[in-house]
């Protein structure tokens, strides 16, 4: 009888997110060699090649992309089971805000598992840019929010929960070496200012002596991805959220990481405190 260890699946998810055996090892608390061995056993179990390995990066094969969907679902189901039977009974209302890109990529799993574990908690979720979320939080309209921030310029009382690796992306038609792409002003697809992803992109280019032009600006991650897909310009995105149809530009200038953090009111109600702790716990397992 064959079985799939959810810890091994977590390692696979970490590798898919980071594109690096060493970074995946940090996420799951294992050495690089241990991560490699776990993936080898997983490929042996399924009889499929799940990764394409190069000297610079690791990419999922088509079979790996298919497994990614099932792995996420299986890990989420295991977490829901644990949370349901280990969690204390909590009731109340939580006003929670999150940036749209985080909400699209991570919140369905996190909030779905939390809601299953705490059916008496009523969630009210708002998705928008970080700055409006902070303004609502400071006005007392949100109990708990997620923010993206520069680790060197943290919001007061923020609780960092993880770092995001940023990468340059483009449509296949625009995939080219940095020196070739920057012979003229580099067309950029951006979020409105202020945005930490935007500042990472523009400051990195300016430090390299490269001029740029904002050809498409949208507060929506999906809108930005569509513009890049259409070949309108280049963008900076979290490595874990790059759509499969876009190309990661590996030889371009390195981008500083962005910090994801929680901001909670000084006196969080029990339901909001439970959600904050749950998010931190889920992130620690990623």
Automatic annotation (TrEMBL):
InterPro entries: LTTR, LysR_HTH_N, LysR_subst-bd, WH-like_DNA-bd_sf, WH_DNA-bd_sf. Keywords: DNA-binding, Transcription, Transcription regulation. Residues 9-61 form the HTH lysR-type domain. It comes from the Bacteria. Pfam families: HTH_1, LysR_substrate. Belongs to the LysR transcriptional regulatory family. This is LysR family transcriptional regulator.
